Amino acid sequence: MSRRTRVAGRNAVVTGASSGIGAAVAERLAAMGCPLVLVGRDRDRLAAVRARTGGRAVVADLGTARGVESVAEAAVDWVELLIHVAGIGWAGPLADTPATTVDELMAVNLGAPVQLTRALLPTLRAADGHVVFVASIAAIGVANEAVYAATKAGLRGFADAVRLESGVGVTTVLPGVVATEYFRRRGTAYHRRFPRMVPPQRVAAGLVGAVEGGKAEVFVPRWLTLGARVHGAAPATFARLSRRFDPPAR
Ligand SMILES: NC(=O)c1ccc[n+]([C@@H]2O[C@H](COP(=O)([O-])OP(=O)(O)OC[C@H]3O[C@@H](n4cnc5c(N)ncnc54)[C@H](OP(=O)(O)O)[C@@H]3O)[C@@H](O)[C@H]2O)c1
């Protein structure tokens, strides 16, 4: 369990707000009367979301220390809900993954949420606030997404530790496959038959419900919880099933 946190009307920072899941979260929070800080790199897309949600746009590259600092500066002494959605993917065998891509995945998916949470923790504590990390079902291990999986598993471990030590509410959201621009941007289409894609609004609804309900983790769709349970209780069986449905590349 995490702490139950009221969402309506609270000041919220949403990273990755210019697209997909982040934009859907921003729209849901705006409908609940939350003043927003919307973070992304793409100025025009951020402005289009802001036209629907209100709030303040902060254009920042979370792959850089300067970008992370500018978001922290915009949110300090203000933020009550810190929602980390920004992220990038990459698919392919580990040995073919460019070293620069490894660095970028680590910086955007893991480094930025860690640094931003660290910088804003005193503000969140004073506000009885809540931090949300959008991880992925890949956190339990997916073939040909080793670095991405590592960043998402790292995020999950970080969330578990912060939940224990900080006194603020902490929720991890683990989506399966979501219909966004994620796959086009990573340069590799989604090829598996399941899990099926869900709309980003479903993830946004699961996220808000989990914060209000005091859930430590939520899988979207919910049935993916089963995969995580098998992974935890019977890792060898999980690995056997994974190899059967998604054989390793040669
Ligand atoms: N789609 C899926 O199937 C799926 C499944 C599980 C988990 N997730 C996770 O969900 C999150 C959102 O993904 P999505 O599906 O909504 O993909 P998306 O539509 O591609 O959105 C990604 C968001 O991250 C932002 N972003 C990327 N790099 C950034 C950087 N260097 N600095 C600042 N912002 C950056 C993008 O902003 P700009 O374009 O403005 O830079 C965009 O707003 C990611 O963390 C992803 O790993 C997605």
UniProtKB/TrEMBL annotation:
Q: Which UniProt keywords apply?
A: Oxidoreductase
SUPFAM superfamilies in alphabetical order = NAD(P)-binding Rossmann-fold domains
Q: Name any one Pfam family assigned in the record.
A: adh_short
At the top of the EC hierarchy, this enzyme's class is oxidoreductase
Highest taxon above the source species? Bacteria
EC number(s): the record gives 1.-.-.-
Molecular function GO terms recorded: oxidoreductase activity
What residues does the Ketoreductase domain cover?
A: 10-181
Please state which protein family the record places this protein in.
Belongs to the short-chain dehydrogenases/reductases (SDR) family.
> What name does UniProt use for this protein?
SDR family NAD(P)-dependent oxidoreductase
Q: Which organism is it from?
A: Pseudonocardia aurantiaca
